[in-house]
Amino acid sequence: MATLSIPGVAAERRTAPREAVEAFEAMLDGSLIRPGDGAYDDAIRIWNGMIKKRPSMVVRPSGTTGVIQTVNFARDHGLELSIKGGGHNIAGLALSDGGITLDMSGMRSVSVEVRARRATAEAGCVLGDLDRATQHHGLATALGFVSLTGLAGLTLGGGFGYLSRRFGWTVDDLEEVEIVTADGIARRASRTEHADLFWAIRGGGGNFGVVTSFVFRLHEIGPQVTAGLIAWPASEAEGVLEVFRRVAEAAPRELTLAALMRNAPPAPWLAQTAHGTPIVAILVCHSGPVEQAAADLAPIKQHGRPLADLIQVKAYVAQQSMLDATQPAGRHYYWKSEFLPGIDAGFLATYREQFVGNTSPANQIVLFQMGGAIADRPEDDGAVGNREAAFACVIQASWPEGDPEAAAHLDWVRRAWGALKSHSTGGNYVNFQTEDEVDERTRQSYRHNFARLAAVKAAYDPTNLFRVNRNIQA
Ligand SMILES: Cc1cc2nc3c(=O)[nH]c(=O)nc-3n(C[C@H](O)[C@H](O)[C@H](O)COP(=O)(O)OP(=O)(O)OC[C@H]3O[C@@H](n4cnc5c(N)ncnc54)[C@H](O)[C@@H]3O)c2cc1C
């Protein structure tokens, strides 16, 4: 394993001398944004309004050169450095409080090699950027459920979505990256070049450097799929969740389901009388032939009397952004999550109990189906691990700034988590961890792969320059 030699790392401090900042700015391939500048508020805006951090400067690089300059500057002046991809990390790991934030949003190009079935995406992309570019050619790679999520953070933590049961974790289709390591060198990492580094970034997050671009393998998908959402009153939850369990268990890899309970939003697709009432819903995406999808989904579509059935043949990109409006940026968000080895009647009964007397308009628990191709590879194929997960259970609260019920929402999440976590595989998803989840949870995320990750971290980032993340330290 290579070990980097890092010159002249200064002791940590919050500011650099004014002349040094001026010299940095004069040479910078990109723009420097300070508090008080017109662009500052936008540059530090992230998805979770609960996080209040103010970097002393934000750098928006135009390309790899600007990234290298910023890494060198932060390292040489002992400044805390954070990296902002799509700003969707719930713990607010995109921002440094008082240090430098490297905002990658100026680097969002995507190029698709149709015959080779590969796409190269810059690290400032959101998921929709890559999906739209690849679906133009009827191709896709497995990305997440909300199109505004950052591609970089999602990929570096593992990444899963509607296509993961066919193709595995997002990082299973990752072929190569360009990454600027702590010594300020841009390296290519793949299974054959810096293979140890490549193994680590396939799940190990932003611990190893700034990724500037990703190369993904693509597959033929759609562009039409059978997908959408179907909802019933929560009074039917026991039967609906049993159908969900049975269909999920028998599902081909082309089909991915998710179930959720919550109080109904004031959505136009629901009758007004249903707004605010408890519901149970199933989300589906079937990327196989339409007739096969109709047969596989029949038990769901024919169950009981749904309040609304939005499952239809539609564009895959439309399904990929269907949930965007349900997760608006700026609200306060708090989650807990666990991977589950399966769901049985006992689990589902406890799940349903969490909604007895729930008055929150937005709190929900989502059960995302996983399994399939995720489990095809060995646990140590990339740092992400957790390949035995059959479901991800995500307990989510959300409320507007200033909501007097904020403490009650936090409490609801913690209580529900307490009731459900004994069903966990023992693993949890590093990309769903909140600000108050400590190192022990990160160790639980990586479990068998943690020691190897710590060794790669020690080799490539011996001074822990990249520490505003779910930090790996030996
Ligand atoms: C509404 C919503 C829906 C989600 N849905 C899914 C889903 O379906 N599937 C799924 O797998 N996850 C999902 N997630 C979780 C998501 O993967 C994480 O929140 C992820 O951190 C978001 O990436 P980002 O680039 O937007 O994050 P940011 O907040 O910008 O960054 C997060 C972390 O990534 C690191 N990072 C960012 N860019 C780089 C880079 N270029 N180089 C090195 N490190 C970098 C940062 O240092 C930071 O630690 C969802 C999150 C939200 C809020």
Describe, in short, the structure shown.
The protein is an alpha+beta fold and 474 residues long.
Topology, element by element:
Blueprint: H1 18-27, E1 30-33, H2 40-43, E2 57-61, H3 64-76, E3 81-84, E4 100-103, E5 110-113, E6 118-122, H4 127-135, E7 139-140, H5 151-157, H6 164-167, E8 174-180, E9 186-190, H7 195-201, E10 210-217, E11 219-220, E12 224-233, H8 237-250, E13 255-263, E14 278-286, H9 290-301, E15 308-309, E16 312-315, H10 316-320, E17 332-340, H11 345-353, E18 364-369, E19 391-399, H12 406-420, H13 439-446, H14 450-460
Parallel strand pairs: 2-4, 3-4
Antiparallel strand pairs: 1-2, 5-6, 6-10, 7-11, 8-9, 8-10, 12-14, 12-15, 12-16, 13-14, 13-18, 17-19, 18-19
Helix pairs in contact: 8-9, 8-11
Flavin-adenine dinucleotide (FAD) is lined by residues 47, 82-90, 93-94, 104, 123, 144-146, 149-150, 152-154, 156-157, 159-161, 205-206, 210-211, 327, 431-432, 468-469.
Strand-residue proportion? 15-25%
Bound molecules: flavin-adenine dinucleotide
**Helix tally?**
14
Let me know the number of strands.
19
Mean pLDDT across every amino acid position = 96
**Percentage of residues assigned to helices:** 25-40%
Sum up the overall morphology in one term.
Answer: globular
Q: Provide the gyration radius in Å.
A: 22 Å
